[in-house]
């Protein structure tokens, strides 16, 4: 069995923190720190709970003066590998203890994000003084280091997973747009993914704004085109006609779904549903198509909720029908639990529901 993500914070990692601090700060109570970390609740804590617990234990054992404690952490951060998720305790320390020391904290967040990510830690600073912090994020969007540029985008996402929702930016995302404008042709895929995710966040609350942005950006640059397509994924899954049109998925009246079949009308939780279908066109001119399927799942209370899965994007014409054979698992996952009852599978073409079949999960 694979280790849980939270287990990056193990005895070896905690020992590394203690030993590193001891090297630059000989008075550090390393044994006390370790004992505080591994308390009776440690085993049950999630990844973020362990991170915050480490931060608080450092607050109990490092010098009480924030700037002195921060100086120690800045000295030891290079003793840890870069791109190390475990190192998010560094910016978390700034989040917890550094709001009153703005300049020093901002400098530290830019440093620490180059070793892990400060995307969560910047958010209380945005809430504290949005205008000041968004001006800082705009400056970071021009930084020579890709990790700092990404922080400008990722830290300002209105709906960042695992992070606090930025209600003000969720309601009015206009302060984010100049940051994204600076990054729309960024050479780093790491940054471009963040820009796309930020715009996708915005699309959930302001679809028309994102559609206007997509129309103005798309077709200007290959990097920007990738961002726009990835950013519109929620709108595309919703079957938004304007979004479909931007990427050439217009009316497909000449295209049909034929020979749709499912492997069984009954299956047990844990089994797979196999299904197949054919896509045909009655025209010689190729049609650009986006094929998805939708599962209407039964929920615990007996109601149903849908989830859409992408199959492919392709071209089809009269001379070349497309054949698809797919498998969908009904094995319980940490992210999805299945319930008995009548489910429905539907094939979607350019956002339109084409054919459906019911089946029972028991």
CATH superfamily of the largest domain: ARM repeat domains
Strand order in space, largest sheet: 2-8-7-4-5
Strand content: 15-25%
Radius of gyration equals 25 Å
Structural key phrases:
362 residues, 2 domains, 16 helices, alpha+beta, single chain, Immunoglobulin-like, Serine Threonine Protein Phosphatase 5, Tetratricopeptide repeat, five-stranded mixed β-sheet, 8 strands
Describe this structure in words.
With 362 residues, the protein is an alpha+beta fold. It has 2 domains: 242 residues, Serine Threonine Protein Phosphatase 5, Tetratricopeptide repeat, CATH 1.25.40; 107 residues, Immunoglobulin-like, CATH 2.60.40. Helix content is 43%, strand content 20%. It is built from 16 helices and 8 strands. It has a 5-stranded mixed sheet with strand order 2-8-7-4-5, with no helix packed on it. It has a 3-stranded antiparallel sheet with strand order 1-3-6, with no helix packed on it. It starts with 10 loop residues before the first helix and ends with a strand. The mean pLDDT is 95. InterPro entries: ARM-type_fold, DNA_alkylation, HEAT_type_2. This is DNA alkylation repair protein.
